[in-house]
Structures are given as structure tokens and as C-alpha cells.
Amino acid sequence: STMFLVGLSGGIASGKSTVMAVLRELGCAVIDADLIAREVVQPHSKAHQQILRYFGTEILLENGEINREALGNIIFSQPEKRRLLNSITHPQILKEMLKQILKYFVLGYRYVILDIPLLFETPGLTKFMRYTVLVYCDPPTQRARLMRRNGLDADAADARISSQIPLEEKLQWATHVINNSGDRESTRRQVLRLHARLEDSLDFLWARLAAGAAVAGFGGLVFLLLRHLIS
């Protein structure tokens, strides 16, 4: 049997968590990159030690955990520090994601949904995805939601949104779009349609396998995993 990967992404306050909740409810195998990113920097981890070495103890909370807000402020304004942090955390995040993908593969899941905030910003990742899903929201709605959710004024909200690639631009890269500009019910209907499509596309798998694309994608991931586990 074979397996394919579905990458899911959005923008700040575009409603990705709503979509993820419905997919989980439908019994999909879901891997949350943000959650993994928080786990790989827990105290006593390799990444935690390296971050301390480079960023100093002032980014720690009382309980020894990393103060994400303090670290976020540093890397928000200093691209070279952001690159440094990524070089510490990304290999660890990738290793954990691959372990989870392998777990679902062994359990017999036919596809896995990867929730990756910076999916479209990371060109190397999209080539492993059979489909990419963008959770879209029109800019005025996105801004209003962010202001409401984070208690921000318009300028602060705009600064956060403009630090990301605009959702409008990401539209052209996604194979599937969930438009979350309307109410929850409309979003839910779209997610159900997407789920039906993912389930259906299994039937075409063998036809595609003749072309070898799916095997190459999954084989490449297994190769990556082995390389990371060995290193």
C-alpha cells in the first residue's frame, strides 16, 4: 500500500484551527507542526540547550521554558537571528514530523495532513505534498479577527499580517482552497467536500502509481527520515 501527504496552511487568524478541528473530527491523521515546534524546545532538549547558548537566559520563563513571546520579538526584528533559530529547530521539527508520518503509515493510514504554518514559504516542502490546502480569508475579515482575537489595534494587526506573504498571493500556489471568510457552517461544508475528495483520490492512486510520482514522494521522505535519524 502507499500513502500521500497533504499540506495545509493559512495565514494569521485565517481560521486554520477551525478547519483542523473538523478534519480531526472526521478521523483524519493530522500532524501539527506548531505543536511539534513547541515540544522540541522543551527544557532538557537539544534545541533548548542550543537556544540558551545563542540567545542567553533572558529568554527563559521562571519555570525554565522558553518565553516564546520574548524570542518572537527578537527574531521578528532581526532576520539573521531568525535564520539562526530556524537552523537549530527545523532539523528537530522535521525529524519528529517524519517519525509521526511513519507511525501513521505503519498504522495503515492512506494519507496524512500536515498542518504547516510556513508551508508556502518553504519551497522544499511543497514538493513532498500531493495536495496543498490554503485556508483563505479576505483581508478585512482577517484583520478584524486578529484585532478581536489578540486585542490589537489596527496598526499592530496590520504589522503582523504584512510580515507574512499575503493570502491573495498564496491562492495561486494551493491545489485546494477553503474560503473561511463566511460563517462556520460554510467553512464546515467546504472541509467535508475536501475530505470526500481526499478519500476519493485513493481510488485513482494505482493509476498514478504507474507514473511513479507517489512512490518517489514517499520514498524521498523515508530517505530523509533515515538520513536524519542516522545523523
UniProtKB/TrEMBL annotation:
The keyword Transmembrane applies. InterPro entries: Depp_CoAkinase (IPR001977), P-loop_NTPase (IPR027417). Pfam families: CoaE. One of its GO terms (molecular function) is dephospho-CoA kinase activity. The chain crosses the membrane at residues 205-226. GO terms for cellular component: cytoplasm. GO terms for biological process: coenzyme A biosynthetic process. It comes from the Eukaryota. Gene3D superfamilies: P-loop containing nucleotide triphosphate hydrolases (3.40.50.300). Coiled coil: none annotated. Keywords: ATP-binding, Membrane, Nucleotide-binding, Transmembrane, Transmembrane helix. PANTHER family: BIFUNCTIONAL COENZYME A SYNTHASE-RELATED (PTHR10695:SF46), DEPHOSPHO-COA KINASE-RELATED (PTHR10695). HAMAP family: Dephospho_CoA_kinase. Belongs to the CoaE family. This is Dephospho-CoA kinase domain-containing protein.
